[in-house]
DNA sequence: AATCCCGACATTTTT
DNA sequence: TGTCGGGATT
């Protein structure tokens, strides 16, 4: 009955298989014995415990290629799941590379979510959805919940909708539907959680929409209640592979277990020591329990590290050994030389940033006895994103190019979401959430009152909002400017939709090009569309007044937003039509900004997982900040252990030079606080650590505290000196000579950039906005910013206001 | 309907 | 110290 076997056949791989079967497999030769075992153990459950930098992706991709080449599996029989699109993409690329051709034919290599979308589109009707359901992001989700909370007459001051969103997400992570919610959860969200959850799910079905959690939840539900469907996929996916298994939540675990129950050929790759997503539902228990869940599992440990020096590995091992209940791994390396992990304390956070700035500068030039590094080789990894500020400020001042990884993603930006709402409304007029989003953006004089009228009319007639608006207009239920503008908007939407008609119908027919049970696809001929979808997108943004809105906006962000809109339109070119684009975007939230020039990276420890850098700075190792107080308060010992794993992840990112630092004083929410060195510093192995002394007056910024005599700083000193971390630092420090005086930093002075400007000129800066030049000093300009106040900034980060695109 | 001002508040984040 | 959301104001 299934038509998959025929339709998904993959010719390329079988050709490759034949070609390679003739020779012994050369791709196996570069593997170490453990990797090789992981690659060749194909049948039965396998747990690959892969420590940081042990060639996990290599093993995983080679394993896929091996299965294909030996004819064990066809590409469409392998289910390979990752968490991020980036990981999926990389795997696809590497498999393709090993195969010597693009791995186009691996239809089931993707993220949990993207694979679930595919599955759910095929079986949507089993959970009451249509197969063209839309996927809501967290923003849509929150607005929906707000409406429900409001309708329930709940004081959203005491019980914010945000909290409800969190509760519901948690439930979904645990695969709890409204029907199988444990009794213990009844009290959630002031006792109204369960009822609101039920309402929310019902509303989603009404809207023919799902949130991210639903993608898994619905598929698990289908598997649990429809044996035939499950059996079909169990048969189909003969080999299952899972990356980052330590990050799976209960829903994902159930999903995998259900699918693997047939052939039991499941290979999970992960590292319990790198489980850092417990706070969003990941269960380390999943990986710890693997052997119990899958009896007879082969457990393979990848412990040979190809990334870091022995000192760095020793430091990481020493820290992580403080955790209980590990599966246990000991990283080792053939490398014999390398720098020790460097540890340094500073007087305060600003000095820490200043020191790192100078250090980066020096290392870039290859001074300090180290080889010269590119800025691209260096990264600063922080615990919390607010710590990035100190570095950004410092780097802007000294003209050090940097890039921030993470942060708001392209498709989460307001202007992008607005634009997308327009596109959504044009392709599916019944999209109420999109309608709500843009009905008064740009301002059309349609405030709360007018929008309520539309809502009521729509509800009374049981139609989508846009139809409600039509009726309201026809009944003359709205007057004045609002009525005229609303009329124009609806007229516009109709017109834009008509321009896309041909495309729409074609898309609906070959959606996913899957027809089950012998259904026939009927091809219909269409004339050429009246304009390309790219032109259409431009027309929509233009005629709706949306572009104009930002062109007239004088805030410093406006030019950037217009720039983003341009980029959005450019991104459209890669798709056949608007619909296809929207589908893609709802799942791919990547921010692949084209990077120019060498830059040092700043990111959170979480964002750094999976990355590596020759030079890594780990600032802010202070108790309360790292480990974070909140984590310890909320999760106690378990929290500390997750923080410790974060420390482990941080250290193991470094290949050659790893520098840990802390500050004795730090401004927290504007208040100065004295800080104690992190407990993790005590867990570093002395023999592998070199303690540096910061430059500055009286032989060290941190120690120089003594010259200050205010009560506050004495208290600070007392605290700091009493901490075990500090005592140890002192002893070690005394044993070693202080570091040589710093060589002069050699920032290139760019006088040309300065000469382009003059006193009193109005200029623009990416981060600080507009301001007037009030001073010139070397290659720096002193600027009185309208929003940010007076600052000295390197001239090349400044543009004259004439240059700013409006 | 839009703007302004005040108080509460403050990890980590992918899909 | 900054941001965001709500209530009061224009």
UniProtKB/TrEMBL annotation:
It catalyses: ATP + H2O = ADP + phosphate + H(+); Couples ATP hydrolysis with the unwinding of duplex DNA by translocating in the 3'-5' direction. GO terms for biological process: recombinational repair. Pfam families: UvrD-helicase, UvrD_C. The keyword Magnesium does not apply. Coiled coil: none annotated. One of its GO terms (cellular component) is DNA helicase complex. Its EC number is 5.6.2.4. CDD domains: DEXQc_UvrD, SF1_C_UvrD. PANTHER family: ATP-DEPENDENT DNA HELICASE SRS2, UVRD / RECB / PCRA DNA HELICASE FAMILY MEMBER. Belongs to the helicase family. UvrD subfamily. This is DNA 3'-5' helicase. The lineage of its organism: Bacteria, Pseudomonadati, Pseudomonadota, Alphaproteobacteria, Rhodobacterales.
